[in-house]
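Q: Joint fold for the lines below.
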Amino acid sequence: MIQAITDWLGSEAGQFILFSALKILGVFSVMMFIVAYAVWVERKTAAAIQDRFGPNRVGIFGLLQPAADAIKSFLKEDFTPGHVRKAYYWLAPAIVMIPSLLTVAIIPFGSWIGAQKMVIADLNVGILYTFGIVSLGVYGIVLAGYAANSKYPYIGGIRSSAQLISYEIAMGLSVVPLFLIACGLDVGQLSEGWQKFLTGTGSLNLGRVVTWQACHGWLIFYAPLSFIIFLVAMFAETNRMPFDMPEAEQELAGGYNVEYSSMKFALFFMGEYANMTAAAGLMVTLFLGGWSLPIAGLDQPAAAAWVGLLHIAIFLAKVACVLFVVIWVRWMWPRFRYDQLMDLGWRRFIPLALANIVVTATVLWARS
Amino acid sequence: MQDILFYIFAFLTLVFGFLVIANPFSRNPVTSAMFLVLTIVSMAGLFVLLHAFFLAAVQILVYAGAVMVLFLFVIMLLDLRAEERRRFKVLAVIGGVISAGAILLIFLRSLLSTPLGASDTPTLEGGTFELGKLLFTQYVLPFEIVSILLLVAMVGVVLLSKKELK
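A: Joint structure:
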């Protein structure tokens, strides 16, 4: 029996399943840790900006606050109002969490450790998969608004579906120039390490974008307009501050999650931060060089295990920086009005993103 | 493994598809729309089994992500109570049976005229690169005609949404 199990683990399929499971477990734990401590960083940053102390009662510097919050969420009464639509009321919080967890599956968070590539699923359609999953994210919020069966959550749900659809278009269009540029990667010209790293990948693979950036420099310098559009769309897609229409407290008493309490409410809250983390990971991969760093030979796929770990650390440090900027903006900017938000999305960013594609394509064509 | 997955996805597609139109538990249009999303997702699974990854991703991106969200958006803005109360109408049932029967007939005829069996290597295989190349060389005319269709729809929307024509 034990012999059979070890044999199976030695086989190709067994190895694949074993290491995939390990990677999924690792990524999930790190992501949940980031989500928990992003909340803590958010509260501390807000306190510093508003000249307060912030959480400082549980543990030193309030570092155990996330744990206390989690216990509080679990122990609170899970109250279900009488007028809600039960099935959707239960489903919505789960649906909010799932897309953000699925998105991180294709983000390359490192190069190699041993013979394992540090990405859960190395898909050829990479970026299309991401946008497919991101576009499913709207269901959680819409269904939460619908399930609540009362006015404010309903308006919150309607607002958010319109907002998310609008900014998805701008976001999708903003990354097209990146792939036009990264398509010019001539794999045959690269060193052996890179060729091994890119075996079997297609032109929409995220690993290729990282490779291009490691060889030529970060894409934020080549496509700054794309970066700006992507950044703004990212705030809108994750319902963060300048665009947090769906849950505008002063107007909607909290928006789509008004009727929720205890762990279900906590899931919406965690979903927002998980979305932020996934979006930050995507932004680092697309614009900020992914796991590579243009110093000390760190822009080559790792040969030794400790270099592989260093690559993961670089990736996480970059994600942390992006997350901090996202949190910082929340306490610095007032909220947009809803019509301004729609105007910005449809009449400014979408034409701008389209023009960006045409200009990039023309420049690339002229230079080829 | 592939066969088992095919049967699972095909079964799910059929079950969800049935629940879209004739859900015995609920006459709620939102529920129907959500089951249509699940049907689309399981069909994307079938595309993946055919190695058509691009098609699978686009299926989810366009249909599940964009079209169905708009469906849901419109359904939520309408008054649903009348729909929930409405019972089966004799005329609608007869019309439905006739059209479904006609499609079944066409399907059976084409099925019987071509022998089933192991086909050649899947022709859908290939990355986005090959697909794009084909679309802009061999199939450029149909591709452009479809684009014009979309343009016509867009012009129609602009025309309809204008309150008064100048």
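Q: Anything notable?
A: The mean pLDDT of chain A is 85. Residues 12-49 of chain A form the longest helix (38 residues).
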